[in-house]
Amino acid sequence: MARFHEYQVVGRKLPSAKELQPKLYRMRVFAPNEVVAKSRFWYFLKKLRKVKKAAGEIVSINEIHEKRPEQIKNFGIWIRYDSRSGTHNMYKEYRGMSRVEAVGQCYQDMAARHRARFSSVQIIRVAEVKSADVRRQYIRQLLNNKLAFPLPHRVQRQEKSHRALFIAKRPTTFY
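^ that's the sequence the OP posted. Answer follows.
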C-alpha cells in the first residue's frame, strides 16, 4: 500500500450576484488521503488566486491511477521547499513504477538530505523523462543494459527429500 495517492481536485469560488459562473480550478495533488488533498488544494489556490476555503467549494475530487503500473519509468520532479535559511527551487530525478512512488521517494529524500517536512515541500511538477533525456548521473548509471549486481553469500538449496531439519555445521555461502 502506497503512503501517497494522486488526486485530481476541482474547486471554485462560490457563485455570487456579481459572478454567477465562477471559473473552475483543477489541481493534481499528492496526499495520503482525500482530506489532506482538499487541504493542500486550498493552500495552493489561496497562494495562486484570490480564493479561500470559506468563500469556495470543492466541485469534485477523484484519485488518479497510473496508466502502466507494471513498467519502470524515470521521473523528473520540480519542487520548491522552505529550509531554515530560505526558499529553494530544485529538480530531482527518481526511478519508479508510478508517479506516486517517485513522489514518495522524493519526500523521503527531502526529509533525509534536507530535513524538509511534508508541509514545507511543494511539488510543482512531475513528468516522465525519457532515458535519453535523463540529466542526473545517479539515475543514468542505472540505464545500462549490461547492469548486473553481485550475488554474494548464496545458500544452495537441496532437494526436499535430502534436506535435514538440523545440521551440525553452517552452510558454505562463498563461490
